[in-house]
Amino acid sequence: MRPMILTRGLRKSYRSGRGRKATVVEAVRGVDLDVEEGEIFGFLGPNGAGKTTTLQMLTTLIEPDGGEATIAGVDLLRNQAEVRARVGYVAQGGSTWDDSTAREELVLHARMHGLSKAEARRRAAAALEAFQLTEYADRPCRTYSGGQRRRVDIALGIIHRPRLVFLDEPTTGLDPQSRAHMWDEIRRLRDGGMTIFLTTHYLDEADALCDRIAIIDNGEIVTEGSPERLKREITGDVLVVGLNGATPRPPSCSTARRTCASWRPTRPACGCTWTTVPPRSRR
Ligand SMILES: Nc1ncnc2c1ncn2[C@@H]1O[C@H](COP(=O)(O)OP(=O)(O)OP(=O)(O)O)[C@@H](O)[C@H]1O
């Protein structure tokens, strides 16, 4: 197996404001990742953990402050154009226009990747077929259901047939049936030879879908491994990862850091499912 993503010490801080009022957020604090070719790799963590920032660095949308990365065999810092050509990226917010049809969007994206008109049309038709969208292909995107629109987003992200695709929360907002369909689509991409790196808030999604998972909190990877291994090893009371979009802050813990020994697995009032994982240092 070849590494598809390899990062060492990847870092990113954001500075807002000026002078004495300036604040710095260390969004990603030295992340090491090893993702093998052909894997579905899940990147899990609560709100504000650093998932999107990491994803945006890996897809060249923002520049790291430090560290190294090789993406699909290309040096991220030295050859961003080649990285972009080799990867697909499906953002959280989606990328379709309300008034365009799925077919128009797909043809346009294929053209932007340098394909001829005829080839772009062929690719669009094949993608519509593969994502079971042919029936709706010529209707404006505003008329699609959430699940259909998400399928169009993914078809757009891979129209240039990349070896590696990044999916930012691909199932957020979908109902359980549409989520299950989306999982099937993602597995099908992997079975076709693509490597998938996805972010998610949902532990059940990571468990059902991913070959391996890394959990990030407060800008650092706190644990990684296969879902089976993590489930076997999760015994600690040290870090609580909030699911369903909530950042967990147990009321008894004023520091809300994983060094705080008072953290215990609980079910908070917001109804989130929480889980506990040990930090790297205690594994
Ligand atoms: N442009 C920005 N300027 C300042 N701070 C930012 C910026 N983007 C992100 N941050 C901060 O960086 C940290 C990490 O944010 P990021 O969006 O990477 O987290 P996330 O894990 O993707 O969260 P979510 O699950 O809510 O999407 C957060 O504290 C966030 O407020």
UniProtKB/TrEMBL annotation:
The keyword Acetylation does not apply. SUPFAM superfamilies: P-loop containing nucleoside triphosphate hydrolases. Pfam families: ABC_tran (PF00005). It is a peripheral membrane protein; Multi-pass membrane protein. One of its GO terms (cellular component) is plasma membrane. Keywords: Antibiotic resistance, ATP-binding, Membrane, Nucleotide-binding, Transmembrane, Transmembrane helix, Transport. One of its GO terms (biological process) is response to antibiotic. Its main location: membrane. It is found in: Cell membrane; Membrane. Residues 5-243 form the ABC transporter domain. One of its GO terms (molecular function) is ATP hydrolysis activity. Belongs to the ABC transporter superfamily. This is ABC transporter domain-containing protein. It comes from Phytohabitans suffuscus.
